[in-house]
Amino acid sequence: MARLRPELALLGAAVLLAVALRLLDPLRSPVLAAEDPILHLARAERLARTGAWPPEYPPGFPAMLVAMESLGLRLYDVARFAPAFWGGVSVLALAGLARKLAGPWAGVGGAWLMATIPEVVRRSDFLAPEAFDLALLPLLAWLLLEALDARRAALALLVIGAAWLVVAHPWGFAYLALGLAPFLVWRTRAALHGPGTARRARLALAAVGALFLPLLVTVRVPEMGNVVLGQAVLGRMGAVAGQLGAYALPWQVDPLAMLGLPAIVLGGIGAAYGPKALRVLGGGWVLALLPMVLLDLTGVRYVPMRSAAYLAPGLALLGAAGIARLVGVARTHPWPRAPARRAALVAGALAGLLLLAGTGASAHSWYRIYPEDDQAAFQHAADVARDHHMKVVAGSWQASAQLAAWGADARGEPRFFQNASTRAWYASHEAHGAPFLVVLDKVARLRANTSAPEYANFSLAFTHGMARIALGKYAAVYVSQAVLPRELWAPGGVLGIARQPPVTTRVTSSSSPSRTASSSGSTTLPRATRTVSGWMPAARSASRTSAPARTSTCCSPRSGPSLRSRTRIGPGSLHKGFNASPRCRSRCPGNQAAYGA
């Protein structure tokens, strides 16, 4: 049996460590982190359901997610775990790039650094284009080096990969061109002094293209609209120069925490003593992107923070050069005994690998907007909306993105909660008289209590009298623990929905008489029983409440299974627990809604 070479074993360990580190955050909670992954998932879901390309975003990224779903994977699982897979690809790609320039141990060093740089881990453990870019950029750089060696297959793959990157995330292509420009200039200068006119022309053309292409790439920045990247950068130079007197790092930029002390130290060693080709490529990449990290050149505050992740492959290449230099010194050092040399190398390697693994594990975890039960509520509400062909209006764009990610036709519209004219317009132009599903979430309530101008006059009073609105029919669902007491929540946090509009909502408690919910829309009576005419919450069992409500025989649930099992929502199953006699159907609005009266 052939003996496994140590560099291959260490490379495999780096890939496994990279995937493991990137799985820590998604395995911590089934809820997708932050906001952007929900938006990407919502775009992909809309594309898969309707075939409509997102007008506000490059089409390649959601199309790639849909293509991965076509392989038999669930789209939500793709959103959770595909970035970890891309992280493993990034490690292999950077290892191949470093190995080509400086040998196998440089490849191993680059792989371990790419696997453990904290900002690289943080940007590739949740669904974002940066995770895909960090896998594709070193791969395209590797293909470029192979193409410059006159390998036609590598050139064809390079063209395909670069075109896909432009379609999927043109900002990533701009970073790639900036990072490779210094190396291409150096390579062109060396080729101009050697034989081969065609080779020199090809290298010169590549260098010129890499230098000037970022100035021509048109990108869409949310806070700036459609801009030409070069113009945006040059237009900011005056403002940046005026701020240098009182310089401070841009928003949330902390190079030491983002890049890690081991990578910075090893990068410094590589920049001073590493192999020349690797030193030029890694150092040029870092120098080209460093101003994007340390200066706010675009006026968009999250660009410097994200640019740190794109700088990391260059730093990993410099660190690989440093590791290759250290390994070379260790192997050529005149040790007194061979066992002592072997023991020192093994001990140093283990200590370094443990230090790098700990650095990667120190990456900050992402926040979650909603807890798990809220996400289950969104999923359930989206199922109801799809089954009953209902339009959905949410109080915040975060809630609408959550609903759209589960396949609902949802919009985030705070104005829907501010005036009746907006609700009437939605009913006449959006739903065409069909029932609406109105969703309230904690983000809308929190912002309604702040000074945010878009949430001025935000009110929930209309949700308790929606049957009296002339235009449109509405059904309400609440997905926030801040709105209703825990005892009134169904499994997953969603209330039951009838096909007819709600009529009245009465809350009774052992400590207070019946009363209508307050104008704020929140019910503050703990452990109360809710009695509803026209719609009914899928609440906890009645034994959990302090006092049962008094209702008519017709409108009371029949004896039998628990209340939770009788209020499942689906076609033909609404309010099956109500009395089904003809006399009661005509007297109880709940029965009318349940049996299609």
Strand content: 5-15%
Give the overall form.
elongated
> Roughly how much helix do the residues carry, as a percent range?
55-70%
Major sheet size, sense and barrel closure: 4 strands, parallel
Total DSSP helices: 23
The structure class reads alpha/beta
The value of Rg in angstroms is: 30 Å
The total of beta strands comes to 9
* Mean of pLDDT: 74
Oligomeric organization of the protein chains:
single chain
Placed side by side, the strands forming the largest sheet appear as 4-3-5-6
Termini separation comes to 77 Å
Low-pLDDT stretches are 465-473, 481-597
State the main characteristics.
8% strand, 597 residues, three-stranded antiparallel β-sheet, four-stranded parallel β-sheet, alpha/beta, disordered C terminus, single chain
